[in-house]
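Hey, resending since the last one bounced:
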Amino acid sequence: MAVTNEKGANLERIMFENKILPISLKKIESALKNTKYFIPDMYNEFISRILNVIVAEAKNYNFRLKRVGQSEEHLLMNQLEFVMEKGCKH
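The structure tokens again:
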């Protein structure tokens, strides 16, 4: 996860890594365990729903999805960029 040099960005990163991602990953793992089969034609919808788990959990901590982009370092990988809305912190 990349962060800016803005004041407080490191605390935001720590919150994201220690709270939001573990909760999201447990929800995703649970969903994957309950999936009996995978339909290749529905791959994009499947990935979108998985990513929405992370977006929804981030929203609980006052983060919003700023943009979805392509990783410059890993060309076949997309990245989600989150920003914490100022004014309310957990």
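The longest strand covers residues 63-70.

Sorry for the duplicate.
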